[in-house]
Amino acid sequence: MALSYSKWKLHRTVDRSPPEQPYPGVSILKPLTGVDPNLFSNLETFFTLDYPTYEVLFCVESEHDPAVMLVNSLLHKYPHIEARLFIGGMCVGVNPKINNMQPAYLAAKYPMILISDAGIRMREDTLLDMVQHMREDVAIVHQMPFVCDAEGFAAVYEKVYFGTAQARMYLGADFLGINCHVGMSSLMRRCALEESGGLSAFGEYLAEDYFMAKAVVSRGWRMRVASLPALQNSGTRSVGALQARLTRWARLRIAMVPTTALLEPLSECMPLGAGAAWAAGQLFGAEPLPFFLVHVLAWFLSDWLILRSVQNGSPPFTKVQFLLGWVWSECCAPFVLAAALLNPEISWRTRCYRLDWGGRAHELKPKLKF
Fold first, then answer.
1. Transmembrane residues, as ranges (predicted)?
2. Which of 32, 185, 261, 316 could form a disulfide with 143 if both were Cys (CB 3.0 to 4.6 A apart)?
């Protein structure tokens, strides 16, 4: 289902012909904390967008953050682009990202709001593609998470995960009308967000993107996935960092939708294959091991096809590298879920949180050391 949907949904040609009505202005919120080797080039892509009317609003918590100097250099380099820097944030909840963006959100002057994480790299036509997916009854257009090409096993693992397991879940959920909104690159109507209480209403959640979508859809609006995936381009990649991130996401899903702890293993190749092989042996007398191996082979080939579809061509590594990254990703998936279940505390940058059932977050005070 996800593979067929990806062929129809992703990488459509962006219509560059003049519109019948002028495109709406877009205020782009860019929350920043710290720097990495790719941050400058990532942010620079927001100054070269092929879109008529937009502003870029950078949000930094502290004036001592090294991102301030980097942003100021871009403001000086592109004086013809509407861009401003907001420092200090505004405390409206426990979510540091919401707190960081709140002053810029209040100052935004356009009817469309694009929330874009620091590590996102934009193609020139990405914003135009997202706006063209807006319809009168659509309030959110979000990009499916994916990653830029890079070298090393961590980059292979990252691309395999986001191009297979994440893509299956995201495309399948969108096709079935299930809330799969990930807010790393999300275009929203400001009026729909205001109907739901504004940005500050979601400061009590860490997974603010999920609850934004839930609130907006409950008021009769629709969501759509853009045809161009979101290109994450972190300057520091490691296997451990990605697994910590996936574990944090799993903890959020478990707190928001507890049934995911029971159903999620059934979407993974290894647990599902082992269960199906045992069932086939019990019900039909089939040999479990050959059944399991055929299942894994079919899953592997299907994942290769869906990765090519999401990549819009061949991935930047060999089939052997894909095999190694795929086996690692699939074998680690059950352990990531187990780690999330055994330790519900969430570490995010320098802070720690605990979630109530339903998703509300409480920041934990650091333990004193003597």
1. none
2. 185
Domain boundaries, the chain: 1-237, 251-350
Q: Which candidate in 117, 129, 209, 303 is catalytic?
A: 209
CA distance 166 to 160: 9
| DSSP assignments along 4-15, one per residue | HHHHHHSSPPP-
Asked if 121 and 45 count as a contact pair (C-beta separation under 8 A), the reply is yes
pLDDT in tens, 16-33: 998 989 999 999 999 999
Q: For the segment 153-191, what is each residue's pLDDT rounded down to a tens digit?
A: 999 999 999 999 999 999 999 999 989 999 999 999 999
- What is the SS3 assignment for 179? coil
DSSP 1: -
CATH of domain 1-237: 3.90.550.10
Residue 22 three-state SS = coil
For residue 45, CA distances in Å to 41, 124, 243, 292 come to 7, 7, 28, 46
Clarify whether 129 is annotated catalytic: no
